TrEMBL record:
Keywords: Membrane, Transmembrane, Transmembrane helix. This is Oligosaccharide repeat unit polymerase. It comes from the Bacteria. The chain crosses the membrane at residues 31-50, 62-78, 90-109, 115-137, 149-169, 195-217, 263-284, 296-315, 375-394, 429-446.
Amino acid sequence: MMSGAKNINRDMTKLNSSAFSEAAFRFGASLIYAIVLCYAYEVLSLSWAYFGFTYRLTDNRLLYGACVIAAFPSVLLSTRPKTFAECTAWFLYILVYLPCLIVPVMQFSSDLDRLLQIFGTTFVGCVLFLVLSRGEVRRINIKPIPPQIFWGGLAAIWTISMVFIIYSFGQAIQFVSLDDIYTQRFAGAESAFTAVRYALALLASAIDPFLIAAGLYTRRYWLAGIGIFSQVFLFGTLAARAVLLSPIFVIGAYFLADKLGHMRANLFLIGLLIIIAVTAPFLANYDPIGGGVNNIVTLVYLRTLLISGAIFGVYEQFFALYPLTYYSNNNIISLFVQYPYGDLSVGQAVMLTLIPSAARDIGELNANFLATDGVAALGVAGVPVVSAASALILRLLSRFIQPERTMLMVAAGTGFILSMANTSILTSLITGGGILLIALVSFAPLRRD
């Protein structure tokens, strides 16, 4: 009896020690990541201030404290995520919450009281999101669709969508270099009417990523090949970088799975640290029009790791002066609440204050769910509200995914996760592929041979 009790105590001590070590690693890695982001933002602000990357902070002590505090919520992340919500929490903490905590400090758009309000509500939102995302969910048992019906239907949708896209774009389809992306995007926009954009979103955000992940999951690599080919082809329409890079994201996320189908989250952090270790030295001689490795630096830091925080800050500055939407940009809610920006979308209204233009075709400054569903709708007080709501939505989605398919959903859902980092939660669920991916992963007749 005494020997058994000692063994139990020893095992509990080991578990507690292991949990503490892993939490300490997450905190340390997150703090290093935050510090590198601050350095990258300061460098980028010299060239991209007109795009919202402003740097007005004069007391760096505030920034040091912000980095330490912003790294603390990482201890709430699950070491071995078992649900789609727990896995997604890792990505959104890194891509959304941490940048949204530290970038507004560097922007310092108003006074210290306002900054503390922004930082405080975002921190509370982050903690709420991570706490509510944790824990197992009760799974809904879903019977797969018969193979002939499922794959036949999916093949028909894929083929019809591809034919429609090819017919619509015609000779406008061009495979350009990174330097000519915006030229191709402008040329292709004339062919991209609403129905075509939905077809593109259907393939690029849901069907193709699912094919890649399902091919890896079932070891039918030809299936993954179809998805990769399709994404590369779709890049020739509107030259979206995310479409071209999505096969890398899907494959990378899939191989984060361990033998039990859980996410090796620490491996994700290690991979992130390797990326910044390789790319950060090039920031010292960064030239936004220099091409080559400078394009990679722009893609990694400006377009991926820092964009959420920068645009979040821009939205906060805009809606501190202009009317809130109270979700009236939604067609149903607009029946009861008047939308304050006329024919302009929220992103267009913000873009006009950032980059004034008299052109008819106004660009759209899209922002993550914290900015779009939180700040734009309810002000900074909306950040905790939308954080809690998003966590609960992700937990609901997790119920439809069987445990052994969790990492399949994470891999296929990288586009959906990135969409949350760039648009509202509703847009991410619909055009970002969230709902369709849940259906595909849940009902697919997949066997691991």
